[in-house]
Every structure is written in structure tokens, then in C-alpha cells.
């Protein structure tokens, strides 16, 4: 079994490209007067979150890599490093990304890590870099275990994961409209990913793809960008801080506050951590299906349109906070 | 990429982009000139609310909003806005205006520049006891 395989750290190598692309997008917006929005403190927070993500990878990356190497010692399979193995690994890792991303929106424990990526009310190339500092603590590295056990070397799995992340950088822009139909059909594009960042009820919990949008089409989570409904970026309940520490940890703090409330059963405490964002033991908050249903109660004409195919109208609860 | 190369690249990159954004005039920018602007900002956050009144401050950087659930505050947050109910919010008059604290980890406080008489009126309104 091959232990000593090295692949380039493509994310680090791409840092100059990230900076150049951000400057290009900024100048495009500034001189053309269209194609997106920038705000100084918002961008600064996003960039610091990106730097913090790299730092947390340096500090904590050994945990995931150690776990993968244990699996690599266990598995009898070794697919080698042929180009087609790398390509297959890239596709399967993108499927892995789809599910991790879906869990990131539907399990609050994982959402606590991912939420900061959605915490900007802007959508530009700096938003792509607004990444988690706490991904290790979600334990989502276990979703990569099947790839290692199937015989893909851990270094290769991390390499294709880096390529996946780099691909997703350029789709965080409003400067690119819709691409040719075949591209929009197969690939994740700026248009598809804008939808994913929307807080509009129609766009909630959709388009989890990393590189290939076919996963969303396959699993029923695809919602196309609507020409008559501009995407409103951010969270259902937007945060009011640019402080990177608060951005990184605010949902963890909220989970702690809920889990330690007096008077709850053990089951309720656990559910505050693992149920979808917006779950509450007394129904006083709204999960995304409730938000969609109440939107339909106010706008019944939207029933059956993209994003509302399955939701049923529901009246507003008397007491409501937020998702 | 060696850390000795990446670290300066990241620091200079962030500082350069942030400095450029500021010089190009992309710092802040959200203002509410009228009650309708404040109402729109509130309903963007809470579309199910009934807004019965909305009064921006003289600088347009914040507005007090009356809703069916009680009073709230909407304020400029960069080029956008943020809203919070005022239950639990406490206002303190400062040299340049008002500082409002919320019992909220992700929106802990907001500092508003406003004239002293307006700050006093807003502080009284925000700190008044509510059932």
C-alpha cells in the first residue's frame, strides 16, 4: 500500500489568483457600474474569515488527515494514481461535497460551522472566501471515509477537495449572468449558486452542489434563478456584526444558549443541536419549510412554482422569532 | 506555498483590497431618508410584521419602528441594514450620540451619531419600561 504520495496544495497556490480575481471584479463593478456590490468592512470580514480558515486548517488539519491515514491503513484497496482515478475521485468527492453541504444546512451542529459563509448580505468574490474556522468540530470528515476505504489515497482526496474549493470561488459573483444552456445544465454556475445564497423563501435549502449541479437535479433540491425574483443575499435573520470572532462563533453560542436552557428534557437539548436551523421545542421559531409555507399563505399564486413545488400554505404562528 | 511567502501575501492582499475599497468610496452608504425607507428595511427582514410607524433619525443611519410585536430598531450596517426588536435593548447617551446594546451575540451593540436632544429622546424611548 502506497503511503508516500504528494499532491500540490492547490488552495495555497491559488491565493494570488484569488486576489487578482477580486481586484478584477472590483474594477469591473466600479467602472461598469454593474455586476455586483462591494462594502469595505463586509469585504474585510470575508477576507479575514478566509485567512482564518487557512490558519485553522494548518492548526487542526492533522485531525482529519490522521483519521484518513488510519482508514488508509485499514483498507485493503489501493486504486493508485492514474489520471482516471483522480478524475473519478474528483466526481465522487463532489458527490460527497453535495451531502456534506446539505447536512451543513439541515443539521444545526454543522450549520453552526457553515453559517458564516452565508452571513454576508453581499455576493462577490470575497464572499467565497468567507469560510469556516470550525469545520473540524462538525466531524463531517467521516463523510469522506468511504472514498478512502474504496482505495483513493487521502492525499488525492484532499487534492481534489482543494480543486473543488477553487472551482467554487469564481461562481460567487453577480458579474456573470447565465452561461450557455449545456453549462447551466451540468455545472454549478454563478446563477445556480446565487440562488443558494438567497434568503428569499423560494431559494431556501436549494442548490447544494459544489461543481456539478446534476446532484441537485438528481436529488430534487435544484431551484433555478428566477428573472422576476432578485436574490436577497444573507441569512433569514441577518447578523449585525463585522467582528470575525462573532461571525465565526455566533451559531455555536446560540446552540450553547439553547442547549443549556432551564426546563428542557435531554431529548430537547439534543434536538436543539442536531435538528435543522430554526427548530425549537415549543414551535416558536421557523425552519425553512415553515418559512416557505407561510410565504405561500401570503402569496398563494406562487404555489407550484420553482422552490415551492411541495410546500403547503401555513398561517403565521402567534409567537415567532427566527430561523 | 511556504508560510514565509503566503503570510505576507495574505496580509498585503487583504490590506490592499480593503484600502482600495475605502479609497473608491465603498465604505458604508446605507441611509434611510424617510419612514418608508425604514419600513421597507424592516419588512425585508420581517416580512410578516405589521409596521405602524417608522421614524428615521436625523442622520438617516437608524430608525425606530413600531410593529405589531412591539418597537424595534433598524440601522445601517455597511451598505445594508440590520433589524432587532428593542426588548432587552438598552441605550446610553455618549459624547457623539447614542450607544445601544442588545442581549444578542451576533448584534451586540450599535453606535449612532446624533445631536444631544435627539439622543436623549431616543434613549428615553428605547429604555422605557415595556410590559
Strand coverage percent of chain B: 25-35%
What summary fits the major beta sheet of chain A?
none
- Which residue ranges of chain B are poorly predicted, with pLDDT under 50 across at least 5 consecutive positions? none
Determine the fraction of residues in helical runs of chain B and give it as a percent range.
Answer: 25-40%
Secondary-structure-derived class of chain B: alpha+beta
Euclidean distance between termini CA atoms of chain B: 60 Å
Q: How would you sum up the global shape of chain B?
A: elongated
Number of strands of chain B: 7
Helices and strands of chain B, in order, run as HHEEEEEEEH
- What would you call the shape of chain A? globular
What radius of gyration of chain B results from the CA coordinates? 18 Å
Major beta sheet, strand line-up of chain B: 1-2-3-4
Keyword list:
heterodimer, A: 323 residues, mainly alpha, 52% helix, disordered C terminus, B: 131 residues, alpha+beta, PH-domain like, four-stranded antiparallel beta sheet, three-stranded antiparallel beta sheet
Describe the structure.
The complex is a heterodimer of chains A (323) and B (131). The model of chain A is unreliable at 318-323 (pLDDT under 50). In chain A, helix 4 packs across helix 5 (108-114), helix 4 crosses helix 8 (154-170) and helix 5 runs antiparallel to helix 12 (244-259). Chain A is mainly α. The longest helix of chain A has 35 residues, at 40-74. Chain A has 14 helices and no strands. Chain A has helices at residues 10-13, 15-32, 40-74, 83-106, 108-114, 125-128, 145-149, 154-170, 181-186, 190-196, 214-219, 244-259, 266-274, 288-298. Chain B has helices at residues 3-23, 35-45, 116-127, and strands at 51-56, 62-67, 70-77, 80-85, 90-93, 97-101, 109-113. By secondary structure, chain B is of the alpha+beta class. Chain B folds into 2 domains: 1-27; 35-127, PH-domain like (Roll). Chain B has a 4-stranded antiparallel beta sheet, covered by helices on one side. The relative contact order of chain B is 0.13. Chain B is elongated and about 60 Å long. At the A-B interface, helix 2, helix 3, helix 12 and helix 14 of A face helix 1 and strand 4 of B.
